């Protein structure tokens, strides 16, 4: 008896079943808590809201990754502005640290999105991505994120676990104890976890103050010389040089290429909704903004340092407090030339990449726009061309003048005759006028019964009228019997 029911249940497709996410699926909203050590609290809360909306709406689920990039980028921009202004932050020595922090945030939300997708498919290994994202900067709420990931993973069925009791039955002390025990263990483990300083709470180093050199007491003559080996001077760090290397692209050219890419993205976002016949939704605009902001921040943080200032240089106020340092006058080494040339080639490759992306986006936008126009023209109903009123009038006048001239000559049309029958009778009596008469009757038929007439037909009708009127004086007289008819 159970086999037919099982076959019937297997035949039900997911489309036929109404989509109503269970409350366990909202455990995805806890996954961003794993990044509390990397991102600020408000950014993590926005990510929690985004992951929760992804459970509720398919559209938000599709835009989860790019909108997460937008939130991380907004957090970076806010942190840059909080350092004393964007220009000060770009010229400071902590630009590399911000780039590392930004990449950690991007990889973190990317790992969470990938892990959430695996968990939604019922695969337990999605928890490893959540754990890897949280271990970048461990904190107690990482356990809560892992619990949310385990909760959102769908099981084999939706039956109520036996240890929770029957539906509608009250909770007993045994059930509460079974639930409180793992919660207490999780809290104890969370307290025992190491709590390093969050990556986000990075503060600029305190200003360096000038200190007087400490006086070294003179060595006693009786003191024996130290047997310690002298300290070796540290190896000089490689420099970026400007001589005998591949030149770097102008910064203005890279900026123009970035602006062109932004313009092409904006054009594409305007064309795609028009091609689909509906305006862009809020999710699509947020996805586009996340892609644009990611591109801009990566360029600004990677190549946004002020020209002529090396990373890690001190501000002027701190540089004046230190003793002057002699300029580095050593000659450039082959390794430094290779390093500088390689970095300049990377900049040229990035510039060419931006230009290629710009060309691709513009080509795609123009292709979609042309396709939408062709589809709109193909959707229009095909209507026949309206008849030429002037040509119709000319044919009508030519036939009326010809019929009037024939009537005056005693060869009028009988009341029961059609124009074709009238022309056939006259052609039999007057073989010399057979061709113009038949032509005039044929051209006049669309005028009488409805149809289109071209300018060429109108010219032919007027020529036939002239031929018939010219031949009328040479025709033989009409017999009395024909005139009576």
Automatic annotation (TrEMBL):
<feature type="transmembrane region" description="Helical">
    <location>
        <begin position="99"/>
        <end position="119"/>
    </location>
</feature>
<feature type="transmembrane region" description="Helical">
    <location>
        <begin position="65"/>
        <end position="87"/>
    </location>
</feature>
<feature type="compositionally biased region" description="Low complexity">
    <location>
        <begin position="221"/>
        <end position="230"/>
    </location>
</feature>
<dbReference type="InterPro" id="IPR025403">
    <property type="entry name" value="TgpA-like_C"/>
</dbReference>
<feature type="domain" description="Protein-glutamine gamma-glutamyltransferase-like C-terminal">
    <location>
        <begin position="398"/>
        <end position="464"/>
    </location>
</feature>
<feature type="transmembrane region" description="Helical">
    <location>
        <begin position="29"/>
        <end position="53"/>
    </location>
</feature>
<keyword id="KW-0812">Transmembrane</keyword>
<feature type="transmembrane region" description="Helical">
    <location>
        <begin position="345"/>
        <end position="366"/>
    </location>
</feature>
<feature type="region of interest" description="Disordered">
    <location>
        <begin position="202"/>
        <end position="234"/>
    </location>
</feature>
<feature type="transmembrane region" description="Helical">
    <location>
        <begin position="126"/>
        <end position="151"/>
    </location>
</feature>
<dbReference type="Pfam" id="PF13559">
    <property type="entry name" value="DUF4129"/>
</dbReference>
<feature type="transmembrane region" description="Helical">
    <location>
        <begin position="253"/>
        <end position="273"/>
    </location>
</feature>
<feature type="transmembrane region" description="Helical">
    <location>
        <begin position="285"/>
        <end position="306"/>
    </location>
</feature>
<keyword id="KW-1133">Transmembrane helix</keyword>
<keyword id="KW-0472">Membrane</keyword>
<protein>
    <recommendedName>
        <fullName>Protein-glutamine gamma-glutamyltransferase-like C-terminal domain-containing protein</fullName>
    </recommendedName>
</protein>
